[in-house]
Write a structure and sequence with these properties.
It comes from Methylocella silvestris (strain DSM 15510 / CIP 108128 / LMG 27833 / NCIMB 13906 / BL2). Pfam families: TerC (PF03741). InterPro entries: Integral_membrane_TerC (IPR005496), Integral_membrane_YjbE (IPR022301). Helix 2 runs parallel beside helix 10. This protein has one domain (8-190). By secondary structure, the chain is mainly α. The longest helix has 30 residues, at 168-197. The protein is built from 10 helices and no strands.
């Protein structure tokens, strides 16, 4: 979704560089993630970042910004940050399946590079043809953000003590709703600003 507004050549570079950088960071994160994720508020922070990304993805890029180098770097940055936040559980699963074998861990994470590139190459044309898919993607990111926030040890402990009736899917649904509402609000504000400048 971060690359859908870029010209085709820049889009390919953004997808490739974003995927390679994200995969490299996954390997680094795997060294730390099992210890770091047990620290309270880490997942909460990741969920908030992912929610911010979901809101940022819904909106219009100005024509002069689409072809600019900053727009390409922005797309790469969004790909890397979103992948890093969303892949926390995947990293844990890969590390567990590999049973401590670093060659297998690196192979599993490296395998994600062609998968991400191939998937993104197929998805971007669909996003340009059907803009509603961007909203669906923002909702999914919001859902994942809500789940991530709910899985944080500090948040889970707080909910058990103060709101035991709240389930993880409640937070996931709330995350999706917040992402879509704030995204809609952002589009409204941008449209109002454009109308005011005309």
């Amino acid at each position: 979704m971060a690359c859908h507004s870029l010209p085709q050549r820049q889009r390919r570079w953004a997808i490739f560089l974003g995927a390679v950088t994200a995969a490299a960071l996954r390997i680094v994160f795997t060294l730390l993630v099992l210890q770091v994720l047990a620290i309270p508020y880490v997942r909460l922070s990741g969920g908030v970042v992912l929610l911010w990304i979901a809101i940022r993805l819904v909106g219009k890029d100005k024509p002069e910004e689409i072809a600019s180098p900053e727009s390409i770097y922005r797309a790469i940055r969004i790909i890397v940050i979103a992948d890093a936040v969303m892949s926390l559980d995947n990293i844990i699963a890969i590390a567990g399946a590999a049973q401590g074998s670093w060659p297998l861990i690196i192979f599993g994470l490296g395998l994600s590079i062609p998968i991400v590139i191939f998937g993104a190459t197929l998805l971007v044309p669909a996003l340009n043809r059907f803009p509603a898919l961007i909203w669906a993607g923002a909702g999914i990111l919001g859902w994942v953000a809500g789940e991530l926030i709910g899985s944080d040890p500090a948040v889970a402990e707080f909910l058990r003590a103060r709101a035991p009736a709240v389930a993880s899917w409640h937070l996931a649904a709330a995350g999706a709703a917040v992402a879509l509402f704030c995204g809609w609000l952002r589009v409204r504000i941008e449209s109002s600003n454009e109308s005011a400048t005309v």
